[in-house]
């Protein structure tokens, strides 16, 4: 394989505004894929993981957000990483496999030998080079990244069964009601270009099913719940993985690192912490440190944007990200929080288990806190854009929509 | 002249503070409650104070020895063997209160904090020639208390109505009486009880400090870090960048570190408030500590020797003595 001309293309599915409702009120300002985790947009983490693939030709972001949402980001990241990154807008959602198929000409431009498919809302260590090597050995059409999770949580995802020796994917089912397996689909795949043929046959079988005489397609074996699907809509999981399981086409590569699906702002805080601690190993220069003399004291992993100003008497961390132009006043304490751009935190303010939105401001001795339960709706306090919390006010486990002024303490409320 | 202070009960309403000391010895504006009263009595010429107590007499007596010497006033105790309510103790103390002079004597409830216009009361008592004078005070919500229905012009008392359902008057029994010795003849020695609504400690502090302000007392603190009425004991230390007040009392030996915000609260002897903490509407008991960046509010009461860890939030926690608070208290609750 050394010195071969085999190119690799990476495709990252970023979704669109309808998926983004789960990220409100933060998604009012920025599309979910650009929301910062550990100081960098969510999509940046899979993108920089792709950079580690040898012979990477280009990275394509596919979604149905407006193009202008991604223009700036895409050009700056292309520049920074010295690899072409492009955003392709679907005219309508096509499903994860349908989107891939829709842009197949662009994807196949460099005649890549392999295509990575990643979901933007996945938080993990993206062991892509290792996955590619395993895939080449298996010699199948595709390889899925998989991980073991607790039996109780497995049914929220796609559960699968793999052969312990050959690692072949034997069985796959999406969000089953009964327990199938504790091994789940991480949402990261590598395929050979045969994937397009497989997607094509899904279309062909659908047309055939319109013909009432034809009933032996493998689709019909699994299709009891699928009635009408929009034209061109192909889901990778149900339409490709399930039917092809057990046919020596699909294989699995197991990761033992962290894995989370970023489906709500609360979890994004947890993922930000996971990426921050990963920086400790992969990019320690990105992390801030200080001992309270010239620079503020840091505890654990902390990211501070170079343009942010932090008073030396503040104490930051663990698990804190501070974005651009933030002003952190004297005696401020931040724990397990994301502070977005242009926020002002006045003296002695405290933020714990919370996300403070762009341009917000906290008064002196103000306190914004959550109980830290990532899975409960109000476990992490969220302040939208330009929220003001007055001096000495306490906000506990609340979601506050943009442009509100909070002048009395509140607890466990959604403030519209 | 003599006075009887009805110390009485267990002070359950001021728990957890009264788990450590008897109620009359709980500090109020940096001075044990009972001392406020004894000093006021001494000022108008009372030479002997009798304390009617039924609980922890040893602690009280020890304490009183100190005061006797310092103030030059005789203090004795009359101990109830069973709770006698508020009138019973008078009968019990009869021998101590009666003397040949036939002078009237004061009776005070021990949890009364007021401006003590005792001199005026003596004059009033002499002028009407009746057997007893009761101090009354006007309140906004009389039905919480015992209302005294009286002739506004003469002050003659018509009747008492306990917690009236309809408006009968807005003057309530303030808990200070001036009685002729003949009253003692009317009381038999058996339990009689009168309910009394507890005063809000924090409100009481505010009123007390307000009255100090009116008298332009030099005791009140001043400075750019002080807002409103604040009492700071001379042995307490306050750090930089703090904002203290309104309505705060800081006791002897306290240390308030830099960047602390205190409002509407009492900080008792020996307490340390660490940097950047914020305390409002709360009582911090003797020798407790409040950690860095902690937030204590909404009628949090810390008993003696309670330690609130760094960054903890307490919303109305009532914490018994000798506890360490390591996790936040989000809703008012009692921590045993």
Question: Which features characterize this protein?
Answer:
heterodimer, A: 416 residues, alpha/beta, Spore Coat Polysaccharide Biosynthesis Protein SpsA, Chain A, UDP N-Acetylglucosamine Acyltransferase, domain 1, 2 domains, twelve-stranded parallel sheet, seven-stranded mixed sheet, 31 strands, 29% strand, elongated, B: 336 residues, ten-stranded parallel sheet, six-stranded mixed sheet, 6 helices, globular, GTP-binding (chain B), GMPPB_N (chain B), transferase (chain B)
Query: Would you identify the regions of chain B where 5 or more consecutive residues have pLDDT less than 50?
Result: 190-199
Percentage of helical residues of chain B? 10-25%
Estimate the mean pLDDT confidence of chain B: 84
Structure classification of chain B: alpha/beta
How many independent structural domains of chain A?
Answer: 2
Q: Report the sheet-strand fraction of chain B.
A: 25-35%
Tally of alpha and pi helices of chain A: 9
Helix content class of chain A: 10-25%
State the oligomer: heterodimer
Would you identify the CATH H-level superfamily of the largest domain in chain A? Spore Coat Polysaccharide Biosynthesis Protein SpsA, Chain A
Largest sheet of chain A: 12 strands, parallel
State the secondary-structure class of chain A: alpha/beta
């Amino acid at each position: 394989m050394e010195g071969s001309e085999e190119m690799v293309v990476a495709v990252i599915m970023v979704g669109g505004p309808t998926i983004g409702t789960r990220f409100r009120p933060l998604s009012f300002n920025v599309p979910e894929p650009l929301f910062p985790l550990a100081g960098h947009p969510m999509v940046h983490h899979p993108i920089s993981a792709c950079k580690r693939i040898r012979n990477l030709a280009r990275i394509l972001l596919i979604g149905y957000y407006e193009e202008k949402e991604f223009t700036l980001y895409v050009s700056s990241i292309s520049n920074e990483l010295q690899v072409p990154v492009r955003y392709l807008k679907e005219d309508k959602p096509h499903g994860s496999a349908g989107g891939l198929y829709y842009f197949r000409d662009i994807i196949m431009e460099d005649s890549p030998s392999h295509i990575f498919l990643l979901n933007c809302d996945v938080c993990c260590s993206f062991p892509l080079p290792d996955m590619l090597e395993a895939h080449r050995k298996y010699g199948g059409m595709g390889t899925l990244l998989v991980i073991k999770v607790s039996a109780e949580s497995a049914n929220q995802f796609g559960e699968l069964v793999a052969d312990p020796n050959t690692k072949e994917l034997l069985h796959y089912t999406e969000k089953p009601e009964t327990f199938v397996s504790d091994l789940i689909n991480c949402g990261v795949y590598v395929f050979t270009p045969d994937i397009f043929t497989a997607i094509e046959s899904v279309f062909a079988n659908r047309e055939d099913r319109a013909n009432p005489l034809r009933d032996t397609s493998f689709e019909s074996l699994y299709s009891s719940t699928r009635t009408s699907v929009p034209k061109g809509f192909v889901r990778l999981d149900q339409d490709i993985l399930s039917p092809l399981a057990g046919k020596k086409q699909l294989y699995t590569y197991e990761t033992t690192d962290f894995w989370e699906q970023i489906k709500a702002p609360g979890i994004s805080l947890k993922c930000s912490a996971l990426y921050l601690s990963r920086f400790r190993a992969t990019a320690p220069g990105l992390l801030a440190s200080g001992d309270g003399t010239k620079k503020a004291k840091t505890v654990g992993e902390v990211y501070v944007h170079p343009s942010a100003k932090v008073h030396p008497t503040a104490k930051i961390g663990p698990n804190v990200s501070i974005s651009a132009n933030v002003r952190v006043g004297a005696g401020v304490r931040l724990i397990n929080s994301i502070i977005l751009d242009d926020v002002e935190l006045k003296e002695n303010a405290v933020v714990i288990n919370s996300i403070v939105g762009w341009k917000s401001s906290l008064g002196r001795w103000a306190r914004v806190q959550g109980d830290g339960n990532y899975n409960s709706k109000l476990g992490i306090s969220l302040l939208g854009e330009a929220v003001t919390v007055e001096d000495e006010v306490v906000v506990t486990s609340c979601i506050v929509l943009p442009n509100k002024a909070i002048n009395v303490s509140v607890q466990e409320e959604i403030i519209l | 002249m003599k006075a009887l202070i009805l110390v009485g009960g267990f002070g359950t309403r001021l728990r957890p503070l009264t788990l450590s000391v008897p109620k009359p010895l709980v500090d109020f504006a940096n001075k044990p409650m009972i001392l406020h009263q004894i000093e006021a009595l001494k000022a108008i010429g009372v030479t002997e104070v009798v304390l009617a107590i039924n609980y922890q007499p040893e602690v009280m007596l020890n304490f009183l020895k100190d005061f006797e010497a310092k103030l030059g006033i005789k203090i004795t105790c009359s101990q109830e063997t069973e709770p006698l309510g508020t009138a019973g103790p008078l009968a019990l103390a009869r021998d101590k209160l009666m003397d040949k002079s036939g002078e009237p004597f004061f009776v005070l409830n021990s949890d009364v904090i007021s401006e003590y216009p005792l001199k005026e009361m003596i004059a009033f008592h002499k002028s009407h020639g009746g057997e007893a004078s009761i101090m009354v005070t006007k309140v906004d919500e009389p039905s919480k208390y015992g209302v005294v229905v009286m002739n506004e012009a003469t002050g003659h008392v018509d009747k008492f109505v306990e917690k009236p359902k309809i408006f009968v008057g807005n003057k309530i029994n303030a808990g200070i009486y001036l009685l002729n010795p003949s009253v003692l003849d009317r009381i038999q020695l058996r339990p009689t009880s009168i309910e009394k609504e507890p005063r809000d400690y924090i409100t009481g502090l505010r009123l007390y400090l307000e009255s100090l302000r009116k008298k332009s007392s030099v005791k009140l603190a001043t400075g750019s870090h002080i807002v409103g009425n604040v009492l700071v004991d001379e042995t307490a230390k306050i750090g930089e960048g703090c904002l203290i007040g309104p309505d705060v009392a800081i006791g002897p030996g306290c240390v308030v570190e830099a960047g602390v915000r205190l409002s509407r609260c009492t900080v008792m002897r020996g307490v340390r408030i660490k940097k950047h903490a914020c305390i409002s509407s709360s009582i911090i008991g003797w020798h407790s500590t409040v950690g860095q960046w902690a937030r204590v509010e909404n009628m949090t009461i810390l008993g003696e020797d309670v330690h609130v860890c760094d960054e903890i939030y307490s919303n109305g926690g009532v914490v018994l003595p000798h506890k360490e608070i390591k996790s936040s208290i989000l809703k008012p609750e009692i921590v045993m």
